[in-house]
Each structure stands twice: as structure tokens, then as C-alpha cells.
Amino acid sequence: MPYLFTRLNFEVPFSGAEYLNESDVSRVISAVTPQPGFFNWLFGGSSASLTSYDGAHVMTQADATLTKTYGDNYVQLPASAGTLKNGLQTEWGDTSIYTWCTVIQYSGVASQVLGGATDNSTGEAVQMSSAGAIVFAYKESGTGTTKAQAIPVPAGLSAGANIFIGVTRSGSNLTAFVGGASTKLALTAAKNANAALKIGPGNTSYTGASGYSKELRCYEFLYSTNAVSASDLDSIYAAAKERCSARGISVL
Fold first, then answer.
1. Could you give the CA distance from residue 116 to residue 113 in angstroms, rounded to a whole number?
2. Which of 96, 107, 111, 121 supports an S-S bond with 144, CB 3.0-4.6 Å?
3. What is the DSSP secondary-structure string of 28-83?
4. Would you say 175 and 167 are in contact if contact means Cβ atoms under 8 Å apart?
5. What is the mean pLDDT of residues 222-251?
6. pLDDT for residue 173 is more than 50
7. Rounded distance, CA 171 to CA 194, Å?
8. How many distinct helices (H) and strands (E) make up the chain?
9. Which domains does the chain have, with CATH numbers?
10. Could you give the CA distance from residue 167 to residue 182 in angstroms, rounded to a whole number?
11. pLDDT, position 148
């Protein structure tokens, strides 16, 4: 934690001088700046980081039998060869107006859910496709058919890079963004919403095929019940990079 100190490097030329007792010092500068207007989760250390930065909201495990591992500044979601869900769930269900953002380590591993909330016929999520592309996949309104669109990615993206992902929806209008990409995905598409599916990082809800929970390192997650503009996503991305840098995380 950062603190402000003024330490004298010379002798005080009078008697009765008082010096700072550093054991009594209190924190005066926050280690990071949370994203305004969002609920913020900054993972790492222990399961205590599943409590939001403001202390008001707690993520739950989609499947508690899958053991999560905590590093200094991340949570590692485990893989499941079967249909167990490795995701972390917020209290908010899938809806038609929201914004969520996350910073994860990109693995390039195909066929996995990176974040959102989707099951066999409802919801939507950012996924790695079977071909190894980052896509936005949603269940079409009325039919439940899966529709997927590739999300542009930064040039030279490779496994091991830490990336920002942001998704915002207002009604039928959706924008999805991978930080550092030259363009964003913009869609006009109604979906089958399902409030019973809880939004969060990793695979929170999908059991339609085996193996959609792959190892995933997550650094932070942001959620808002409001939509934002495409330009707002740029600002949120910039703030996430700065916040992560303060935590020792380099984001593409």
C-alpha cells in the first residue's frame, strides 16, 4: 500500500522535537482507483477478493467443486473436461441493458466461455470459438439459435498476453471490444434474455457441451446495470490498464 511520509535527513536543532510514529500511520492514498459507476472486483490473494471493492457484493462459484487458485493479483479458474462450470457469478442476471468488462490472460485455447451468461438456448457470452477466435455468441430471440460474430483483436495477439474485454448492451444494440483493437464489434441483435443466468467471468452457465470450462486467469471484473457508449469503453479500457499497472499487471 502506498503511504505519504516526510522523513528528516538532518538533526533538528532544538529540544522536544516530535517524530512520526510510522506504526500509527494510516492509509492516505488508495492503491488503485476503482471504475466510477461500476461494481469492481479486483482479484487476488484469497477468496476474500470475491467481495466487490465497495464491500457490498459477493461473487459465488458456479460450481464450488472446481477449486480456484489465487495469486497475488489474480484468480485462476480451473478447467473441466466435463460440463462443470468454472465461472464466478455476480448477483445480476442476464438482461437487455448492462455493461461488463474484465481483464484476463489470453490463452488462445479454443471452445471456452470467457465471460457473460449463456446456456443452451438463452443469454450471451464472449467465447473462444472451436476455431480459436474470440467471438460474441448470443441466443437469437424467438429461436434460441446460437449466433456468433468475431470480435476484432489487437494485431499480434498471442497466448500469454493480458487483455481487456468490454461488452455493453442497450436493447438490441450491442458493442463488444477487446482493448487495443483498431475497431469494435457493433451489432443490432435481439436475444433470448434469461434473468436466471448470472453474469460473471468464465463459464457461469453453459453445460451444452463438454469442456467449455478451460483454465482462465482473471485479474478484474467490472459490472454496471447501465449501458455505455463505444467511446466510454475506450476510457474504461484506459483506466483498467492504469489500475492493472498499479497492481503489477501489464495489459495489451
1. 8
2. 121
3. -S-SS-PPTTSEEEE--SSGGGGB-TTSS-B-EES-TTS--EE-SS-EEEPPBSSS
4. yes
5. 99
6. yes
7. 14
8. 1, 15
9. 33-246 (2.60.120.200)
10. 16
11. 98
Q: CA-CA distance, 118 to 94, in Å (whole number)?
A: 8
Q: Closest Cα to residue 89, out of 160, 174, 195? A: 195
CA angle 125, 127, 132 (to 5 degrees): 165
Distance CA 164, CA 222 (A): 11
Do 200 and 90 contact (CB within 8 A), yes or no? Answer: yes
Longest CA pairwise span in the chain (Å): 84
Contact (CB, 8 A) for 93 and 110 = no
On whether the CB atoms of residues 187 and 167 are closer than 8 A, the answer is: no
> Which three three-digit cell numbers place residue 212?
467449455
Q: What angle do CA 32, 37, 41 make, to 5 degrees?
A: 50
DSSP 140: B
User: In the chain, what is the straight-line distance between the N-terminal and C-terminal CA atoms, in Å?
Assistant: 25
Q: Does pLDDT of 28 surpass 60?
A: no
Residue count of the chain, please give it: 252
Q: What is the pLDDT of residues 63-79, one digit of tens each?
A: 999 999 999 999 999 99
